[in-house]
Amino acid sequence: MILSNLHTHTIYSDGKNTAREMVETAIANNMVSLGFSDHSYTDFDLRYCIQKDKLGEYINEIKAVAERYITDFSELLEK
Questions:
Q1: Quick one: how far is CA 39 from the chain centroid?
Q2: Which residue, 63, 73, 58, is CA-closest to 24?
Q3: pTM, full prediction
Q4: Is the dihedral of CA 56, 16, 5, 79 positive or negative?
Q5: Which helix (H) or strand (E) element contains residue 4?
Q6: Which residues of the chain are modeled with pLDDT < 50?
Q7: How do residues 27-40 score in pLDDT, each as one tens digit?
Q8: Phi-psi region for residue 2, left (φ > 0), alpha (ψ -120 to 50) or beta?
């Protein structure tokens, strides 16, 4: 069975974990892919979305995690 999750939310919106924690857990559970789908900023309901002033930080964190762990996911795909 191929394990994949393309719908996850981090602490930047309504999730409970950082992107790094989620990726490390996914790798430990032999998942071959993980996608982040946090709620974008909306000015009408701030309870669950990425805050406007945190958007750049979120993008940088996702890029850094992707760069750091891409090899780990590639190795799982080759198994």
A1: 12
A2: 73
A3: 0.85
A4: positive
A5: strand 3-8
A6: none
A7: 999 998 899 999 99
A8: beta
